[in-house]
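Posting this for the archive.
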Amino acid sequence: MGASAWARRCADELERIKGRRASDQSGELSPSEHQVAELVAAGRTNAEIAAALFVSVRTVESHLTRTYRKLGVRSRTELTARVNAGGLTVAP
């Protein structure tokens, strides 16, 4: 009936969501969270990060909130120290 494209799209979306949930529970950062963390460690502001990644400032803030929770840090300074120490794990 021509729904194979929709079925594939749904399957892809479910796989994407499943991966996010797994990384939330494992403490691993998603690729986007890792990228934001690296830019924070480089001294960029949220607005600069948003512009560089073509996302909103709110999206950057959301990534940082999840990153802080997963890593158990409470500030940009602690996050920067963690990044510089090489203590980040990225989910596949």
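The chain has one domain: 4-84. The helical segments are 4-26, 31-41, 46-53, 57-71, 76-84.
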